[in-house]
Amino acid sequence: MLSFWMALAANVLGMTVLVYFVYFRRHFRRDLVLAYIALSMGIFAVTLLLSGSGAGMGLGLGLFGILSIIRLRSDTLTQEEVAYYFISLAIGLVNGLHPDPAWFSPAVTAALVLVMFLADHPGFAPRTQRQTVTLERAYPRNEDLVAALEELLGANVLRTVVTELDMVRDLTIVDVRFRVTPSTGTKDFHGTYELANVPSQVPGGKQETWS
User: Fold this and answer.
1) 15 — phi, psi (to 5°)?
2) Dihedral Cα 99, 100, 103, 104, nearest 10 deg
C-alpha cells in the first residue's frame, strides 16, 4: 500500500513539474498540457487495474500502443512535443506498475523529469535552428544552394536535405539546419516604399524614400 501512495504522489508531482514548469514555460501550448496530464493519469489508472487483474500486461501495453499511434497521427506535433508525449506515457506506466521497493517509482519519475529538463534546456545550442525553405529557383548544385541559403538566412548552413527539386517550375524545397551568426552591427539600407491600395490622388499616397 505504501508503494501505491508513493507512486500516485510521484505521478502527480512529476507530471506537474514536467508539464507546468518545464514544457509550458518553454513551448507555450496549452492544449497539450491537458493531453499530457490526461495521458499520464490514464496510463497510471489502467496499468494499476491491469496489474491486479487476470489480463496480461502485454494486452494493456498493446492497446496503449495503438492509442498512442492514433493520437500522434491525429494532430501535427513537433519532435519536442512527441518526446514529452512519450515521457508522460513512461511516467504513468512506471508509477502504475509501482514495483518494490517503494522509492523506485519516485526515483525513476524524478530521473525522467530531470532528463527532459536538461535535454530540452534553452541553453543547449540556442543559435542552432531548423527550417523548411521554399526557394523560387532550382538549385541542382549543392554549392549554389548553400550560398543562396546563407545569404537569405544570414547564417552558417550546417546541413541541407532537398525534399523537392522542380526544374520545370524552377522551384527548390529544402530542409535546412543552420547556426545563426552573431550580429556584427546594423547595416545602412536605402530604398523606397509605396503605400499599397491607396489611390494616387489621395494625399499621402505618393511614393516616399527611406534610409
Assistant:
1) -70, -35
2) -50
CA within 13 Å, CB half, 15? 28
| 74: Cβ contacts below 8 Å, ≥ 6 apart | none
For residue 156, report the phi and psi dihedrals to the nearest 5 degrees. Answer: -90, 115
Strand partners, 173: 134, 164
Q: 3-state secondary structure string, 80-121?
A: HHHHHHHHHHHHHHHHHHCCCCCCHHHHHHHHHHHHHHHHCC
Coil vs helix vs strand at 174: strand
pLDDT digits (tens, 9 = 90+) for 113-164: 999 999 999 888 888 888 899 999 999 999 999 999 999 998 999 999 999 9
Helix (H) or strand (E) holding 160: strand 155-166
Report the range of poorest mean pLDDT among 16-25, 136-145, 175-184: 175-184
Find where cell 513539474 sits. 17
